[in-house]
Design brief:
With about 350 residues, this protein is α+β, with helices and mostly antiparallel strands. A hairpin with a 5-residue loop joins strand 2 and strand 3. The strands form three sheets. Strands 1, 2, 3, 4, 5, 6, 7, 8, 9, 10, 11, 12 and 13 form a 13-stranded mixed beta sheet that branches. Strands 15-18-17 form a three-stranded mixed beta sheet. Helix 1 crosses helix 3, helix 3 runs parallel beside helix 6 and helix 5 packs across helix 6. The radius of gyration is 22 Å and the shape is globular.
Length: about 350
Amino acid sequence: MTAGNSHPQRDIRQVEAEAREWFMRRSERALDSSEQSAFDAWMQQAQNRGAYRRLQQIDRSLAALAASEEGARLRQPLGFGSLLAKLQGFLGVSPVTGLAFACTLMLAVGTLYLAPWQSEPAAQAYTSALAQVRNITLEDGSEVTLGGDTAIETSFSSGRRDVKLLRGQAFFRVSKDPTRPFYVIAKGAEVRVVGTRFDVRSGSEVKVTVEEGIVDVARQKESGNAPADKVRLLAGQQVSVSESRLSPVRSVESGRVAGWRQGKFSYRDAPLSEVVADANRYRKHRIIIGTRELEKLRVTTAFNADQADTLVAMLEQSLPVRVFKEPDGRVVIWPGTVDE
C-alpha cells in the first residue's frame, strides 16, 4: 500500500472511531453543554456527518428487526448461529463494502438487541401495522391493545412480568397476580402494577394514563438501573416522563382514557410534535415538522383516525403554519403567519 493510499484510509478509520465514540456516548447519556458544543462542531464536517448518520441508520434498522417476530426468533438459542448473516442481509452491509466499522458496530449492537440470554426467559415480540389496532392476549391472561405502528416485547418469569414498549402506544388490562408484578418499560420510564388498566404512549417523552386501579411510575437514572423519581397514579391521573424529569400529575377524564382504541384522538394544550407523531401512525405518508420551534407549538384539537389524512389541512387553517406536499407524498409543516 502506498503512502498516498494509506493516509486517506487512516483518516477514514479515525472518522469511524470518532463516530462510534459519539454514538455510544449519546446512547448512554445526555451530553453536557461542552460535549454538545463539541459534537455540534464535529458534525459540521460532511465526512463526520456521513459516518454518524450511517451508524444511526444501522441502529434504527436493528431496532426494527429486534421489534419484529423475526427478531424474537433470532434471539432463540438456535437463531444466534445465523445472526450475523441475517443482519448482513437485512442491512445490506458486508465487509467488502468498505464499511468495516459498520460491520463491527452491527455485530456489537446486534448482540445488544438480539443476542440470546440463556439465563433469561425467551422474549416474545408483537407488532401492529400502520393504522392497525391489534388486540393481544398474553400468556398470563393480560390483554394488550396495540395502537398503529406499535411494537412490544414480553418476557415473563416466575418472579415478574416484563413488557418493553419499543415504539408507539399500548393499552394494558393486567391480570392480577400479587406474586408476579407487571412492569412496562419505555424510554427510561418504568411502570409497575399488580392488576389494573392503563395506557402508555412512547414518543419524545413517555406518557402514562390510568383508567382503573393504581400504577407506580418511575423515571430511571441516566446511568444505572435505580429509579431517580417515582410517583403513584390513581384512576383518572396522568404523568409524563422525560429524560430530565417527571411531570406533575394531571387529572384526566377516566372515561376518555385511550380514546384511540375507538379511533378518536383529542388533545388539550399538547405539543404539535405529539399530535403529528400520533397521526403518522395512522397515515401512509409522513408529516414532518420543519423546525424545532414548531414541535413545541401548543395545540388543542381532535380528529378521528380516518381523518388523519385531512389533519394537515385542519392544522393549516387554525395555526400559524404553512404546509407543503413533497412529490413523494410527505407533508412538511413550516412556520407561517395567521394571515397567510
